[in-house]
Structure formats: structure tokens, C-alpha cells
What we know:
The chain is globular. The chain has 697 residues and is of the alpha+beta class. It is built from 24 helices and 24 strands.
Amino acid sequence: MPLLDLHFWKKSPFIKLLLSLMAGITLQWYFQLPLPFWLSLLAASLLATIFYSLAPLRQRIRLSILYGTAIFLLFICLGGLLARTKDVRNDQHWFGSSYRPGDTLVLALDEQPTEKTKSNKANALVTGIIRNRSTITVNGKIIIYFQKDSSFRLSYGNKIIVTKPLQEIKNSGNPGGFDYKRYSLFQGITHQVYLKTNEYEVLSDTKRSQFTSFIINTREKILSILRKNIKNEKELGLAEALLIGYKNDLEQSLVQSYTNTGVVHIIAISGLHLGLIYWLLGVILNPLKRRKKIRWLRPVLIITCLWLFSLLAGAGPSILRSAVMFTFIVAAESWGRKTSIYNTIAASAFLLLCINPYWLWDVGFQLSYAAVLSIIIFMRPVYNWFYIKNKTLDFIWKMNAVTLAAQVLTIPVSLYHFHQFPNLFFLTNFLAVPISSIILIGEILLCALFFIPAFAAIIGKILGWLIWVMNTYIERIETIPFSLWDGLQISLLQAILLIIFSAAISFWLMSKSVTGLKYGLMSLLVFAGLRTYSFVKSNRQQMIVVYNVPQKRAIDFIDGRSYFFSGDNDLLENDFARNFHLKPSRILFRISNADGLDNLASSGNYLLFNNKRILLIDSIVRWKVPPAEKPEIDLLVISKNPKLYIKQLTKALMVKQVVFDGSVPAWKTKYWKADCDSLHIPWHDVTTKGAFVMKLN
Length: 697
């Protein structure tokens, strides 16, 4: 394996620079280091570099370690400064630094609004704050949810005035839940607001970019062509996602089927799509290579078309990575130079992280590079497992060898992020990859010949049938009982150990090196130890979790690796709500459902769990003051909108902790919190503080 070869590092200098850049980005995000620190370190590393360059040859040989360290620190500083600059909170003109509730905001829609179930959603730029009849120029982004109305006519570039207070984007706070606040911040979005029809005023002027308008209009034209010629909604949704990454018409159940069977990369625009377009353009423009005077036109046209497609597809990290990669390949090919593929990959990643350092945390970005590296390193050894004379069968095996090779480094990353493994990924990719490639080429052909209605209609019917075949095949595979290994939980360290194990054992198998076997077994041993400890810890856990689920009561009583759910039954029937709010926590704690727990007893609204007394109140309760000593309640959970007075309740009971769940109206909790404070009773509101977790051991 070349990564352990010293000559390899000399041929791939960008790998060292990339690692330094990544280190700086990571340091800045997790420690939020001040600007003077980075500037001081930058100045010191620059002075050391200059000193080394001016030193005599003999001293430079002795100081080579100093030079290497200075370069390393230089690019760490670059990463840190890029991450700090990209963080909108550090911008002196960020609206969040001067915004006050009650201010009037001037907003410009930054995209075409998309229709959701109960609203129309759009990202918007904050261009100004109006206060005391003067306008403060600011910048930043927010999310706007517009009330659904038949008169809604806003589009990209429209400017509106809003006085309604903004809400800061927050996480649900449920254990193991998705970090939506960080995800939004990485896109420069920090606040959100819901607007009714009468809560905003549309201005006459607009803020539009001609280039963005062109992209939006072109996407709309492509969508109209697809919608005219592919009739079935299910097939149409996938066709739109496959060609330009438009996912608003995709059925969620279909996306889940593709995820569970290991072919979701087909829906996500990636290097597979760009590779096909690169190949198609190469075939079409190949005659230009034979004409010396216009030979230069071929790489220019290929690169232009690749980037245009990337922008139309939404310019996501995976497609941008592929665009940069193919740009480097086309440029190197046109100049007649052969470069190290590892250096090319590192250079593309370096460039992308310079554009947006927060792509380092993007799952698609991580999986893309893991897949590319895995294919480069392991594809040839996997392909050599079998020798097939028949060219057609050999081509089919080569396609599947690519799929198998890609799994070596992507499996640990997938397990860490998605907590599941598609056991039958080989079967699904075997058919889905070639069919999706044909569909993509057919869609490009449809868009190129849409002006011939009869021909376009025929292509549309063929595409609809091919998509139906692929969807049906994927959904049938999903129904096989053992098709998915779900509920897997590994830590970041365990994921890294798995990657080391995969790489080291592969190195041992390919080069027969004992070193690879040694490192592979060591990493596997540490992984097994950490995993065993995590299971032992899970078997001993006992806790109560009150979740933050909007408008719902949701409580898990956890004993070891079993849980008993107490809450609204309709939440269990809603797959999306259950998977989003509850499932991450249950995966994190490694628990499964139990009909009952040995140490849990209930009587009406009273529960006794592990010697802790819990009282659930969601309706009117009348209390009589007992003559004897007041009973203790370790945990009081209030739900819905009961007619309840905390002061009266404490005359009958001794309450140690109050929790307001997600179903309690905000206006009501305001009064209850005041009562709790006056009575010195600790309270926890899950809507503002996240889920309440009471550990019992």
C-alpha cells in the first residue's frame, strides 16, 4: 500500500499540506481561538521560513526540521484563519451582533421558495436593520417559513420588510440527535422566522444575481421538460433527483428504501454522475483532438460543461469535489503530464476546504473521498480475484469490483454517521448502478431533444419504465428480512480504528507484510476492548429520558439495554417523527423495546421506577391535603394543558423536580416556572433546554 512508502510522500506533497489545513480548521472550530493567536503564530512561522530561506546551505541542512515545522504551522494557521473567517459570527457586519427584538429587518430571498407540507420555505439574506428611521447595513442569512396561501407569489430576489422577532436556531437536545444548529451555522444561517401573510411587506425593488437567476431558470426549464414527459409522480421525483439533485418531489419512503439497501448515492449527485458526463463529452468531442489549431477547445468545453452541470445540480460538496477532480484530470491530460492520483485528490480536497472549511464535517464530502481513495487502493486487487475471458462478463465483474473496493473505507464512515449497514448492497448496486447510468444518459438526451415532442415522449416513457424497474427492484430487496443491519453505534475513535484495521489488513493481504498484520490486529484488539466496555456500560445503565418532541409526550424508562415507552401512541405510528426524535437516542444507549420492566410499576398516573416516584400530569387534578406527612415525588412530568397550580400541588406533595415536556404551551410554562422559582423547586423545560435525562445509577 503506497501510503507507507516514503517515495509516495515526496510525490504527493499536497497530502501533508491538506493534513495541516485540516488540523487548523479543527482547532479553530472546537476551541474558537482568538484572531491575535493566529496572527502571532502566522508571523512566527513566516519569520522562521524566511530565516531558513536566507540561511547558508549548511545551516539549512541542519535546520530542515525547523523548516518543515514552520511550513506545517503556516498551513495550520491558514486553516484556522479560513475557519474563523467563514464563521459568520466573527463578521463585524453580522446582523446578530446588533439585532434586537422589535427591529425591522430588510430581507432578500436567496433562493426560489420550496413548498413544504404546511409552509413555503426559503433562505433569505439580511441586508439591513431599520431602527429609529435609519438603516444599518448588515449581512447574514436566515430561514423563512411562509404561511401557505393561494396568493403567495414570492420568488428569488424579492425583498421584504419584517418586524416579527426572529428565533435563534436551536437543537432539539435529544440524546444522539442531529446537530441542526451546527449544520445551519456551517451554511451561515443562525436564525429563523415563521411569517403569516400579514406579517411582511413586499418591496418594489429586488436583489438578484444574473448568474443565479440563469441557474434557477435553467433548473426550472429542465424540471418542466421532465414533468411533461415522465408522468408518474414516483418515477418523476427520482428522475429530478438523479439529474439535477432536486429532491422536493421525492417520496420519503423511496429515499429510505435506497438508504436501507446501500444505493442512496444514486440519488445524491456525486462523482458517478459527473464521471458519466465526462465520458460522454469525451466521446462527443474526441474529433477535436485530431485538429491541432482547435485542440485546446476540447478541454475548455469539457470543463465548462462539467462545471455548468455541477452548478445546476446544486453545487454540493460531493459534486464540487468531483468537478475539481475532473478539472485537474482534464488539465493534466491536455498538458500531457502524469501526476500522482493521490496528490490530485489531496489538491482537490485542499481547494474545496479553502472555499468552505466547514465541508470537513459534511458527510457526503467524507464519504466521497473515502470511496475514491478506497477504489484507487483496493479496486485492482479485488478485480484480480477472478480472471474472466468473456469481455461482457469481465466488464460486469469490473463494475462490481469497484463497488466492493469502495466499501473498504466507506463502511466505518457510514456506520459512524448512519448506524446501519446494508447487507445486500452488492445485489442492489449490481443492477442499480448500470440502470441509473443509462437513465442519466437518457435524461440528458431528453433535455437535448425536448423540442421534438414525439421523440421526447418516447424517451420519457422508456425512462419512466426503467426508473420503475429500478425502484421496484430496490423496494423488493428491502423487504428481505436480513437486508439491513440496523441500530449500530460506534464512536469516532472506533470508526478510526476500523479504518486502520481495514487498511492494514488489506496492506498485509496485498504485500504479505507482517507490519500490516501487526497494526491490523492491534487496532482490532483496541476496537474490541472499547466495544466490550461500551456494552458492559450499557448493560448497567438505568435512567429516565423525557424527550423534546413538539406537541407530544415521550418518555423512555431505561433499564440496561431495554426500555419501556410512555407517551402519545400516535407518535409510535409516525415513522418520521419516531426516527427523528426517538431512534437516535435508542441507538446511542443501545436499547430495544420491552413490554415491561421488572423494576417499573405503575398505578394510574403514578409510576415507581428503581425506587424513584414519578408522577405524570396531563389533565385536571384535584388534591386533598393529607393529615399525615406529605408523600415525596422525585419527578413530576407535566404534559398538555392541565388546569394546575403548582402552589396548591405542593400542599399535598413534596416535589423534588419538575419537567415540562414538548406538549405544554409556552405561555403556560411561563407561570409554572415562576411558581417553581418562588417555591425553590428545580424545573426543566425540554423545549428550551433539550431532553431531560435522569440517571439513576
